[in-house]
Amino acid sequence: MREPALLESGAGFGQEGRFSIFAAEPRLILQATGRDWTLRGEGSGIPSRSNRGDPLEALQNILTEFDLADPADRSQFDPDDPPFLGGMIGYIGYDLAPLLERLPRKAPRETNLPDLRFALYDTFVTVDRSRDRALLHHVDFFREGSSFSNEQIHKWIKALSYDDQISSASVRNIDLRGTAESNFDRDSYIQAVERVLDYIRAGDVFQVNLAQRFRSRGGVADPLGLYRRLRRSSVAPYSAFLAFDGYAIASASPELFYKTRGASVTTRPIKGTRPRGGDPDEDRRLAVELAESVKDRAELTMIVDLERNDLGKVCEYGSVKVVDPSKIESFSNVHHLVAKIEGSLRSNSTAIDLVRAMFPGGSITGAPKIRSMEIIDEIERCRRGVYTGMIGYFGRGGASAFNIAIRTLVVEPDSVCYHVGGGIVADSDPAAEYDETLAKGRDLARTLARRENPE
């Protein structure tokens, strides 16, 4: 089906892992590179057009028109209802950040992938893992009537039945030439960490997230197969797959950027990482080591303070609370230290006001945020693109949810790339920081290296 969008979770993540969403055949598409944006009607009756200006303003206009992710919507939420009931699915890449803050851009653009892309989906499937139930939905966004709705439902039933017959599609069409190569080697990454430490010692910043980019040359004829292979090796609560115009984004993110239900907003920043152990005893030892690490807990505390400050820009005074200051969460290849912060959005805040206040997430920039981003632009060797942006949805009923786009493969016509990074603080060991990035990227590297049929 055309332009599929999959927001997926998995077992072992409680309520966060309960629902998955599959959508396709969008009716409206907004995309932007820098300040140049285009809107495509896709048979919706809305005329296509291009403009130059603030693409987030254009996005807010669409959200308002279709009553999506409005914090003022005080609908009662039943935990048994799917979180997504129609709306826009897409992403905002890290490189849109200069529209929000005055930031340099030293590195040249390496891709034609848009900085922002959202599509409006009126027909979609929600899967409830706890009830082992899938529901097919259609929302009449364009007032096309029950006859059109019935046509869409029957069309999807037929298409899904066909897709089920071929759901074991292989990934034999991956044609990657060699292993993924980084734009840093070990020595140059360690030197880059030392430069960050110089800035920290000088008092410019407390923390900077520093990333390296891996790229494997060659095309991928079956990006969905590649995503399915990644999902099998790296089950995560905020996974996503988007495919459009010859590109694909396959994410196995463990990190929630934020979610809203009406005025309620939650963010769950991650800071602190240890690899999984080779046996249960070693695995427990590494988890305890992370939980007791003064360095990692201090790193997380800095980002919690930053996120509280960001939420305070759009939340009711006194409503921002740290619900859980630190908690160990374990994934296929790493343990992470995670915090949880909640707040109540002001009645006059919009969905895009929240984006402007929060984006990009503090856990993948550093603190203070703006100076950290300036240092990132100075030291990193290429733009981040989708990496450390946000992938998710703006939905009906005042709902929205986005991951932070880490553990993410970006498929282009002639290559696949991914970034991995880590937070540098005053007592960081440069060699250990380099090794941590490799641990975070291990599943991504294995996904690209394997050639076998995933089934």
Overview of the molecule:
With 455 residues, the protein is of the alpha+beta class. It has one domain: Anthranilate synthase. Helices cover 28% and strands 32% of the residues. It has 10 helices and 23 strands. Strand 3 and strand 4 form a beta hairpin.
Write the layout of secondary structure elements.
Elements: E1 5-8, E2 19-23, E3 28-33, E4 36-40, E5 49-52, H1 55-65, E6 87-92, E7 116-121, E8 123-128, E9 133-138, H2 145-165, E10 177-182, H3 186-201, E11 207-217, H4 223-233, E12 238-244, E13 247-253, E14 256-261, E15 264-267, E16 270-275, H5 280-291, H6 294-312, E17 321-330, E18 334-344, H7 351-358, E19 366-367, H8 369-379, E20 390-395, E21 399-404, E22 408-412, E23 415-424, H9 430-440, H10 442-449
Antiparallel strand pairs: 1-2, 1-12, 2-8, 3-4, 3-7, 4-5, 6-7, 6-20, 8-9, 10-11, 11-19, 11-23, 12-13, 13-22, 14-15, 14-21, 15-18, 16-18, 17-18, 20-21, 22-23
Helix pairs in contact: 3-9, 4-10
